Amino acid sequence: MTTLSSPSHRVHNLYWWIAWSALVLVLPLRLLNGSPTDLLRDLLYAALTGLCWLLERRYRRRGLLLHLLGLFVLFAGHTLSPGSLAQRLGEGYAAIMFSLVSAGPLFALCAFWGWRGALGGATLAAAGLLLIGTAGSRWGLILAAYPLVLGGTLGLYFHRLLHELEMLWHKLEQTALADSMTGLLNRRALSADYEGPALRAVQAGQPVLLSLWDVNGLKRVNDTEGHAAGDLYLLSFVQALREASPPGDRLYRTGGDEFAGLHFDLDSGHDLYARVRALFPQVSAGWVQLEGQPLADGLAQADQELYHRKAAFYRIKNLQVG
Q1: What is the pTM of this model?
Q2: pLDDT tens figures, 121-137
Q3: Locate the GGDEF domain: which residues (predicted)?
Q4: Which of 26, 129, 197, 251 has its CA 20 to 30 A from that of 46?
């Protein structure tokens, strides 16, 4: 099952798409019309982009930060390069051109890191302007600073908007993946976790147990005491399952009186079953050790064990009544 990526994740992907697209456009132009020094600088930056992209896949945001810092160095180098368009136009124009192109990475720093990004980006931009100079003109300094102020302001606004979208996305995700009555995760979340953290744990050699639970006697409670009492009956079981399960386990409601769990670092379900039944005796369970099989196969195996325990539960109950 695929899940929608968060707004920040999509923005990250968009950034790298823009970065690679810019390199694809710039490098051929540099080959046709550019000095060997500029070409070498851009080739080195292309290599840095690749390294940062790989770093980003392993350590989120670190590659992005390094790439943005490299952009300031790249733009300053091009602006200060002898014979560049910025140098031919003059010192004041060079500062304006530097601020125009640096407004982009400053915007990104503010968008992703807020005021921390704004402080760091403004420091880098100011250092670049000091290196380049503004021809001693007050108007030159104002014109050079204006794109940076605009880029930083828009970046901070975008950061706030992205934060609000991220919070809304998390609320929608929780609504889509959680059972409203019990607060447990639902079957959709079980599918996602099974294909995600559970499968990765199995591949790493960590034991993962899939358990199924069926609350006995719910229909009788609903028929004799009402559905409100039936809901409290289910919530009593959920509380017992939560107390008996180790921290870090994932618990799900997959049907009316049917529940499931993904238990990490657990080789057998016998002890867990005993702990749950000590708190809530009216329950049957089945479990299976995951070995990378599809979710449907794991559920079928666990359901077979549950069926046998449920049949044994009612045989014992009938004997006691008899």
Answers
A1: 0.61
A2: 999 888 888 877 655 55
A3: 206-322
A4: 129
Is residue 284's pLDDT more than 80? yes
What type of residue is 104? G
Q: Which residues are CB-contacts of 71 (< 8 A; sequence separation ≥ 6)? A: 102, 104, 105
Q: What is the Cα–Cα distance from 247 to 167, expressed in whole angstroms? A: 25
- Locus of tokens 């302007």: 129
| pLDDT tens by residue, 38-47 | 778 788 888 9
Domains of the chain: 7-175 (no CATH), 187-321 (3.30.70.270)
| Listed ranges 78-87, 89-98, 244-253; the one with the highest mean pLDDT | 244-253
User: How many angstroms separate the CA atoms of 287 and 77, rounded?
Assistant: 63
